[in-house]
TrEMBL record:
<dbReference type="Pfam" id="PF26244">
    <property type="entry name" value="DUF8057"/>
</dbReference>
<protein>
    <submittedName>
        <fullName>Uncharacterized protein</fullName>
    </submittedName>
</protein>
<feature type="compositionally biased region" description="Basic and acidic residues">
    <location>
        <begin position="116"/>
        <end position="136"/>
    </location>
</feature>
<dbReference type="InterPro" id="IPR058370">
    <property type="entry name" value="DUF8057"/>
</dbReference>
<feature type="region of interest" description="Disordered">
    <location>
        <begin position="93"/>
        <end position="136"/>
    </location>
</feature>
<feature type="compositionally biased region" description="Basic and acidic residues">
    <location>
        <begin position="93"/>
        <end position="107"/>
    </location>
</feature>
Length: 136
C-alpha cells in the first residue's frame, strides 16, 4: 500500500474542490518520493467541473512536487519524514479566546474601523437639513 492510499480513501464517488486540491498535493509529494499514482490524479481532474478548478488541482499537484523536492534536497532522503512533514503535517487551530482584542498583541489603533464607515441612522435627515451657519 502506498503512502497516498494509507492517508486517503481511493474509493470516492465525488470530491469537493478543497479535498481535490489536498489529494493532488499529496499525489505530487508521493510522486516526488517515487510513488506514482497518475490514475488517481486523472480521476481527480475529471471530477472537477470547471477549468478553474482543474487548474487549481494542477497547481496543488505541482506545489506538492516542488515542496517535496526542496525537502528531500535540503534535509535528507528519508521519504517517511518528508511525507509526514508535508502531508500529515500538524494542523494549527486557534481558539477564539486566544485572539487578542486589545493591548500589545492587537491591531494598531490606526487599523481599527473608524466612525466614517459607520452607517447613519435610517431616520436621520441631518444630511439634508439647512446648515447652522445660514441661520441668523
Amino acid at each position: 500500500m502506498s503512502r497516498y492510499e494509507g492517508e486517503f480513501d481511493t474509493g470516492w464517488d465525488s470530491l469537493g474542490k478543497d479535498d481535490a486540491t489536498n489529494r493532488a498535493y499529496a499525489i505530487g509529494v508521493a510522486e516526488r518520493l517515487g510513488e506514482f499514482n497518475r490514475e488517481e490524479l486523472e480521476a481527480i481532474y475529471t471530477e472537477m467541473d470547471s477549468a478553474y478548478h482543474r487548474s487549481m488541482v494542477e497547481l496543488a499537484y505541482e506545489e506538492g512536487r516542488n515542496e517535496a523536492k526542496a525537502a528531500t534536497d535540503a534535509d535528507s532522503d528519508d521519504a517517511d519524514a518528508v511525507w509526514a512533514e508535508l502531508v500529515e503535517g500538524e494542523k494549527t487551530v486557534i481558539d477564539g479566546d486566544d485572539v487578542p482584542s486589545r493591548g500589545r498583541d492587537s491591531l494598531p489603533e490606526a487599523l481599527d474601523s473608524g466612525e466614517l464607515l459607520d452607517k447613519q441612522d435610517v431616520d436621520s435627515t441631518e444630511a439634508v437639513d439647512r446648515p447652522d451657519f445660514l441661520d441668523r
